[in-house]
Amino acid sequence: MIKILFSWLIFLTSLVDSTPARAAVNSPASEQKSTIKILSYNVRNCIGLDRTADYDRIAKIISRIDADVVAIQELDSATTRSKGVVVLNELASKSGMFATYSASIDFQGGKYGVGILTREKPVSWQRITLPGKEERRSMLLVEMKEFVICCTHLSLTKEDRIISVQLINEAASKFSKPVFLAGDLNTEPNTLELKSLERDWILLNNPTDLTFPADIPNKCIDFILIRKDEKVQSKIIASEVEAETVASDHRPVWVQLTFDRGK
């Protein structure tokens, strides 16, 4: 009888000893770290280089990449060109994500601008007006529970882009959460405006991976960045430009990283 009781005592002790290893998975330190995958894609209103408007094609690309947030540029909303279709809503429905839209200009009876798709419902959103001599621009700022994601499509004019950097920094500085920026910046690495942006932001995608034009890319003008913050540590897990050569005139670019708020 004593031997049986002793054996049970050893067994129960082994269960107790194994508990800390399991509990460490849910420790406060591990809960501070989050993993996120961000996709930026100028979809050219889903009109490919084959001149075909194909929402299913773009939606399949988005679903395959399986990002947590998608920053999308060049989106019609109920225009004559899109035959009344709200393009971002179409992509959201097909990919099973939440849609938030920022109209930059009135166009053909509807709107034209940028949008963000998210897996979770946003906490709030803002539209920031940006300059554009050839056409007005905007930045869409979407606040999530753990972070903020911004999407923009900057002007073709250098002076407008330089002013836009200041406005982007002003909008982002109001948040204590990690802030990400993604979009078609219409500028290349080592330009004055990108260097100016990098004073306050860290470039996450590899600028040597070319994004435009899609069929034979010769430059990188699509970027994903995180705002510098001494309280936020981040580490890139992967970065890739997808070899999509027809669906749009840009290639989709994504990054996956971990980030946390530190102590």
In short:
It is built from six helices and twelve strands.
Structure description:
This protein is α+β, with helices and mostly antiparallel strands and 263 residues long. Helices cover 25% and strands 34% of the residues. The protein has helices at residues 2-23, 28-31, 55-65, 87-95, 158-172, 192-197; strands spanning 33-42, 69-77, 98-107, 110-118, 124-130, 137-143, 148-153, 179-184, 201-203, 222-227, 233-241, 253-260. The strands form 2 sheets. A 6-stranded mixed beta sheet has the order 3-4-2-1-12-11. Strands 5-6-7-8-10-9 form a 6-stranded mixed beta sheet, covered by helices on one side. A hairpin with a 6-residue loop joins strand 5 and strand 6. Helix 3 (55-65) packs across helix 4 (87-95). The longest helix is centred in the first third of the chain and has 22 residues, at 2-23. The protein is globular and about 45 Å long. The termini are far apart. The relative contact order is 0.15.
Secondary structure elements and their pairing?
Blueprint: H1 2-23, H2 28-31, E1 33-42, H3 55-65, E2 69-77, H4 87-95, E3 98-107, E4 110-118, E5 124-130, E6 137-143, E7 148-153, H5 158-172, E8 179-184, H6 192-197, E9 201-203, E10 222-227, E11 233-241, E12 253-260
Parallel strand pairs: 1-2, 7-8
Antiparallel strand pairs: 1-12, 2-4, 3-4, 5-6, 6-7, 8-10, 9-10, 11-12
Protein traits:
263 residues; alpha+beta; six-stranded mixed beta sheet; 6 helices; globular; disordered N terminus
